[in-house]
Design a protein that fits this description.
With 277 residues, the protein is an alpha/beta fold. It has a 7-stranded mixed sheet. Helix 4 links the parallel strand 2 and strand 3. Helix 10 packs across helix 11. The longest helix is centred in the first third of the chain and has 14 residues. The chain is globular and about 55 Å long. The chain binds S-adenosylmethionine. The site of S-adenosylmethionine (SAM) has 23 residues, from helix 2 and helix 3. This is Ubiquinone/menaquinone biosynthesis C-methylase UbiE.
Length: 277
């Protein structure tokens, strides 16, 4: 099962802009690690609805420049509608093809909650390397597959989908996480293979609280731009969603909240100042 870029719609895009606080918080931490400064040129790959971009605008000031690219038209539209800065552009594009950006022209690139969706990661890294200035940095915040698969929301989802009527019908090898998700090791290997210097890798546990199980599945639907449970056969998907919600409800804590931890890899890599081999 591949990643579908045609399943998104206006409602999912609007919902994502409203309820993506957890991604936004991770993004501000990622940007802190990248030490973004006034006047820098920034490329946000998979910029979504532009929430993090609006935060970066304050950091780079009027002398910096910001380009956000994303393959989803509805999300690029929201980002452009909300943009108030003349030095900022959002456009349709994918990580694998940055052909419209000159070589060695960008100070800082980041992919916040994006790299696990990118199908051809080696090609994306070749492009990132090409467009980064010598000394330029790239930052990633992406789910830590090794931990998320055995804990929290994903673990509960997998448990439901490995029982009863789902047991024979669901092929986990076809899940987006399985096919495209990253572990800290696989990310470091990709970065090292691209010629970038790995400067920092950290896995951080982040606890999130939700009022209801429906809030959780709504977030996953918006965040996956319609790819949620795409490894479950169509006919079983509505039932699977409600069975997962019922299972999540069992984890309500004493204070009334549904609290789950998830693990995010934060990684920073840099293009050497001298490119000599
Ligand atoms: C969970 S959203 C994150 C959006 C944003 N970075 C944020 O922090 O809110 C994932 C985004 O990755 C984008 N995406 C998926 N495949 C991509 C690709 N190959 N290149 C660039 N972006 C991609 C999606 O369109 C989506 O907007």
């Amino acid at each position: 099962m591949t990643v579908h870029l045609t399943f998104d719609n206006e409602n999912l895009a609007k919902a994502y802009d409203e309820i993506s606080n957890s991604q936004f918080n991770n993004g501000t931490l990622l940007v802190e690690k990248l030490e973004v400064k006034p006047g820098q040129s920034i490329l946000d790959i998979g910029s979504g609805t532009g929430r993090l971009g609006r935060h970066i605008n304050e950091l780079i000031g009027d002398t910096g420049s910001f380009l956000g690219i994303d393959p989803l038209e509805e999300r690029v539209k929201i980002a452009n509608d909300k943009n108030r800065h003349g030095n900022t552009v959002y456009r349709i594009g994918v990580a694998e093809d940055l052909g419209f950006i000159p070589d060695s022209s960008i100070d800082i690139i980041y992919l916040n909650a994006v790299f696990h969706w990118v199908i051809d990661k080696e090609q994306a890294l070749r492009e990132i390397y090409r467009v980064l200035k010598p000394g330029g940095k790239v930052g990633f915040a992406t789910g830590a597959r090794e931990l998320n698969s055995i804990t929290g929301l994903q673990h509960i989802t997998n448990k439901v989908l490995s029982e009863g009527l789902y047991k024979q019908a669901v092929n986990f090898a076809e899940s987006t996480q399985h096919q495209h998700g990253l572990t800290a090791t696989s990310l470091v290997q990709l970065l090292a293979g691209s010629g970038l210097k790995v400067r920092e890798v950290q896995i951080k546990e982040i606890e999130r609280q939700y009022g209801s199980a429906q809030e959780i599945t709504r977030f996953f639907e918006a965040s996956s731009f319609g790819n949620y449970l795409n490894h479950v056969p169509d006919a079983l998907r509505p039932q699977a969603k409600s069975d997962i919600e019922a299972e999540l409800e069992k984890h309500r804590s004493g204070d009334g909240w549904l609290k789950f931890s998830s693990y995010t890899i934060f990684a920073i890599a840099q293009k050497s100042l001298s490119i000599a081999a």
